[in-house]
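Backbone shape codes
____________________
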Amino acid sequence: MCRSIRTLHNFAPPATEAEVRAASLQYVRKISGFTRPSRANVAAFDEAVEEVTRATRRLVDQLVAGSPPRPREQEAAKARERGQRRRARDAPGDAR
């Protein structure tokens, strides 16, 4: 899956509309293969983003969590740490 698509369920505070739309945009970009569609495809692309945004919001709102919501800032710090470890591991000059 795309690294730029983030989990939106079971966070405190809940996912914002901007986060839901950003995840939807990344999904449509991945599926379509377009970062920016041509003029001929803009309408279809934009409609798909809106439909995926609505479906994603419905899904996130309807999911039931079996655990308490995770603190968003704590999870973001963990993600930054994982990214730093990954970049250090994949740095040029790595002798594998």
Q: What stands out?
A: The mean pLDDT is 91. Strands lie at 11-12, 70-71.
